[in-house]
Amino acid sequence: MNIQQVIDDINADVRSRLSQFEGAVASYIPALAEVDSEQFAMAVHTVDGQTFSTGDVEVPFTIQSVSKVLTLTLALQRYGNSLWHRVGKEPSGTAFNSLTQLEFEQGIPRNPFINAGAIVTCDALYSRLSAPTHHMLETVRWLSGNPRVCINQTVSRSEFQHRHRNAAMAHLMTSFGNFENDVEEVLKVYFGFCAIEMNCQELARTFGYLANRGVDIASGERILTSKQNSQLNSLLFTSGLYDAAGDFAYRVGMPGKSGVGGAIVAVVPGQFAVSVWSPKLNAFGNSSAGLYALEQFADRLSLHLF
């Protein structure tokens, strides 16, 4: 398959209709509202170490909820199956920041990819790591191949200043005995993870291990056991795009994770990780152009897992 030609064709197609895609950039975080919506990038990182890219691939962006995959990865390394006593493995069927479901289910978030689930997973990491932010940055720099990857402090501060709903989730979990550390300190770490900034090529490289049975492609070092990697990909397939995960599975047919910064990462086990980025979001908080691009990519290369 000529991956470069395929993604170049998709880039041309997407750019011809960027203004027509539904939605707008995330505005509930002021620092994200300033991003130019008329941008698009796509990158593929194969299990044999090749990277293909097209579009605005040099433009950095904050990865937002895509970071939840990394948070879960680090937590699984330290807790294994015991992590699942604190967070579930089921699709939520509700908005990513729902409080109602969290209270109804007595402080146990449905899965680690909704906000409450990622926050409690971050809390678990905070209990095991003396410097979780430093450890996360070192991990991302290594996986992405860029030792200069950093946190966008402007975005991180903006998210912390508007933390109230996420803080409410953390306090609610505390009331049910499912939170171990100071809420404010954990949220600072959580928002720092969300504000990690990289470009589309680096993002695809970072998640190459998910396509390679849990092994980092560049170094050959194991990140997750093969079973953990398969389980994580299964969770991405059922829950990675919030309450639009079913539509993504139907249209694209790959495990994936989105973020309100406009990025989506998807995985074809045994072949490659693919990332897209375009800031305009649909009603579910997923990149409109990114979803279209991944659907085209899956169709043109016949990539649906089933």
TrEMBL record:
Q: Which Pfam families match?
A: Glutaminase (PF04960)
> What protein does this entry describe?
Glutaminase
The reaction(s) catalysed by this protein are:
L-glutamine + H2O = L-glutamate + NH4(+)
Gene designation: glsA
Q: What is its EC number?
A: 3.5.1.2
Q: Which UniProt keywords apply?
A: Acetylation, Hydrolase
The family this protein is said to belong to: Belongs to the glutaminase family.
Citing just one GO molecular function, the answer is: glutaminase activity
User: What is the organism field in this record?
Assistant: Pseudoalteromonas ruthenica
Positions that bind substrate: 65, 115, 159, 166, 190, 242, 260
Lineage of the species this protein comes from: Bacteria, Pseudomonadati, Pseudomonadota, Gammaproteobacteria, Alteromonadales
Which PANTHER family does the record match to this protein? GLUTAMINASE
Q: Which GO terms describe its biological process?
A: glutamate biosynthetic process; L-glutamine catabolic process
